[in-house]
Write a structure and sequence with these properties.
alpha+beta; 2 domains; 5-stranded antiparallel β-sheet
Length: 329
């Protein structure tokens, strides 16, 4: 939103998605979204990736609230907050489900960020969205929705996991704006936000997904080639592998020979298919089950950080088998 009366249309690009305006208040939602980089393509939206200037990049929907109760210009109270695209969709879903009857807080967040000043205080933004069906006398409200944005500061502290939080009892409110809306106003604002997020994702993220998938396949191919050049030996197991009911196809086929393990044993194709995955999204599945589901999925275990030498050896045996079949065919 431009506050300069002399600014012409050609001088700026308006990124506002939807706006609610009265003679006392303004509530506006704006586009602050950024796509993820190809290395994080599956997230679609940037979630703290480092930009060219070293600052972290986030994909958000901006919320601006203005209060003209004491006049405009320097007397205007301005408060801001940001929500993620997923949070914006959640708010819209709650607005849809609460039309006409909800009497509750549907969304609340507190975020502290930036470098603390010499006294340890950093910027903090609080957002609360709620609906109060009736007033204290029981009269049904015409404007039941309440959007409250409170901007201030608090002493910033760091948690053990790297997260930041405000020290209890240190928050100081500097600017607070409360906007009341009807069911129709609230629905229309959020409906436009949800629609814009969908259009934005269709516009910007296909390229990210294509580049990310291509990069993933390239890395998997490089890892498979490296593993074939330098296969890692499998340590001798002191316990018997658990038996699986799954029977992978072509059990009567034999995989190409692979280097023996440190114990002098060679892993057969059958044994490779029965190696159990004990971590990640495929926890509890065997290599053979993953192979039957998607052959290329086995490649991932050649370089996965949590993969054991046994997992890598089994993945190599299975990939060697399919490579030999393609060459023979």
């Amino acid at each position: 939103m431009s506050n300069n009366a002399n600014t012409s249309y050609e001088d700026y690009v308006n990124n506002e998605i939807s706006t609610y305006m009265t003679n006392k208040n303004v509530l506006a939602f704006s586009d602050k979204m950024n796509p993820a980089s190809p290395i994080n393509y599956a997230t679609l939206h940037s979630k703290g990736e480092e930009g060219a200037n070293g600052r972290k990049i986030y994909s958000t929907i901006g919320i601006l609230a203005l209060d003209f109760s004491n006049g405009k210009g320097s007397n205007t109270v301005r408060a801001e907050a940001n929500v993620s695209p997923a949070e914006a969709r959640y708010i819209f879903a709650r607005v849809q489900s609460g039309m006409g009857h909800l009497d509750d807080t549907i969304f609340q967040s507190s975020k502290i960020f930036g470098q603390p000043d010499q006294h340890g205080y950093a910027t903090m933004r609080n957002l609360k969205i709620s609906r109060q069906r009736a007033d204290s006398d029981g009269n049904v409200k015409k404007y039941p929705w309440i959007v409250a944005i409170d901007n201030g500061r608090a002493i910033k502290q760091m948690g053990q996991n790297g997260s930041s939080y405000a020290k209890s009892g240190t928050y100081q409110s500097l600017k607070k704006v409360i906007v009341n809306l009807s069911d129709q106003d609230m629905f229309c604002l959020l409906a436009e936000v949800a629609a814009f997020i969908q259009v934005w994702e269709v516009t910007f993220t296909p390229k990210v997904v294509r580049e990310g998938r291509a990069l993933l396949e390239q890395k998997m191919a490089e890892a498979a080639a490296e593993a074939e050049r330098n296969p890692k030996p499998m340590p001798q197991q002191s316990h018997q592998m658990p038996q699986q009911n799954y029977q992978a196809p072509h059990q009567n086929q034999h995989a190409p020979s692979v280097p023996p393990t440190q114990g002098g044993q060679v892993m057969t194709l059958e044994a490779a298919r029965e190696v159990l995955i004990d971590f990640g999204t495929k926890n509890g599945m065997t290599m053979g089950q993953i192979e039957a589901e998607w052959v290329d999925g086995v490649k991932w275990y050649l370089t996965a950080n949590k993969a054991s030498p046994q997992h890598r050896q089994a993945a190599q045996v299975i990939m060697n088998y399919h490579s030999s079949r393609q060459q023979a065919g």
